[in-house]
Every structure is written in structure tokens, then in C-alpha cells.
Design a protein that fits this description.
Helix content is about 35%, strand content about 45%. The chain is an alpha+beta fold. Strands 1-7-6-5-4-3-2 form a 7-stranded antiparallel sheet. The N and C termini lie far apart (about 35 Å).
Length: about 160
């Protein structure tokens, strides 16, 4: 299953990249939502090869997922591979400078099942695909507006 979304952001490409690369912020957000997140490297600088081990509940069951940053090409792209017991996913985040003060953020995700329960989960997601895609686009839009505000206020 594949889906993608893109948003234009009123901020320079380097600022957008830096804000998206603020992984400590994302780790804190995940922990506030009850997700246990452990980064493999102690360094605050995230580079290709950095991994995160996560534990969370999905549909009432505890799940584990490993996320590996496979590519980090500043300021144009980040790529991640996620693996869990029954599923794999690849996420690519692209940054395109539209002008000195405007950046296009594109996110593409693909999910593949490795087990029967994961296939059933993906099948249920496919049944609600249009709603899922809309929700993904709305969340990326909200994230883009947040990035604009952070850039505007310098935080």
C-alpha cells in the first residue's frame, strides 16, 4: 500500500529541513502519546544509520517497531525504513526549494505485509483508503502550518 502527500511551506528550505530534522521534538511528542522511543545513538546529531526502537499499543496489543534512517541528504531528502514483526514500511521525505522563502515538503510512504495478521491489517486499511489518505493530507497540512509558525516566531 502506498500513499503520499505534499504541502508548500512559507519558509526557506534549510529552515524547513532543520525543523523536520528536530528528532528530539518528535521523540518527546511520541512519548507524550504513550510510545516508548529509544534512539540507538547518544548523539543529538542524527545521521544515516541512526535507529530508533519503539514500543506502542495498536488495537489493544503491544507492538515493537524498529526505524532506521537509511539516507539523509541535507537539505533535499530523508529516508526511513521501519520494520516490525509482520510489516515493513519505507518513508521518503523530500524537500524542494520553490523560491528563497518557499519550500515544498513531500512525504511518501509504502507499507508491505510479511505475515497473515499484517496482511489483514493492511487490507482493512485499504478498505478505508480514501479516508486514510485524506487524514494523512490533513495532518501534513497541519504540520506544514506549524512549521511556518515556528519559522515566523523563530522557535
Amino acid at each position: 500500500m502506498q500513499f503520499s502527500a505534499r504541502e508548500d511551506i512559507e519558509a526557506p528550505i534549510n529552515s524547513v529541513f532543520d525543523m523536520v530534522a528536530d528528532f528530539e521534538r518528535f521523540e518527546r511528542m511520541a512519548m507524550r502519546r504513550g510510545i516508548d522511543v529509544r534512539r540507538s545513538a547518544d548523539s543529538s546529531v542524527v545521521t544515516a544509520g541512526t535507529t530508533w526502537e519503539t514500543e506502542f499499543k495498536l488495537r489493544g496489543k503491544p507492538r515493537q517497531m524498529s526505524v532506521l534512517m537509511t539516507d539523509c541528504d541535507r537539505p533535499s531528502q530523508m529516508r526511513f525504513e521501519a520494520t516490525s514483526k509482520g510489516m515493513t514500511g519505507i518513508t521518503t521525505v523530500d524537500f524542494l526549494a520553490l523560491s528563497q522563502r518557499r519550500t515544498r515538503l513531500s512525504v511518501e510512504m509504502s507499507l508491505a505485509a510479511k505475515s497473515l495478521p499484517a496482511r489483514l491489517l493492511l487490507q482493512s486499511m485499504k478498505l478505508g483508503q480514501s479516508r486514510f489518505r485524506r487524514q494523512f493530507q490533513v495532518r501534513l497540512g497541519d504540520f506544514a502550518r506549524e512549521l511556518e509558525q515556528r519559522h515566523l516566531h523563530g522557535s
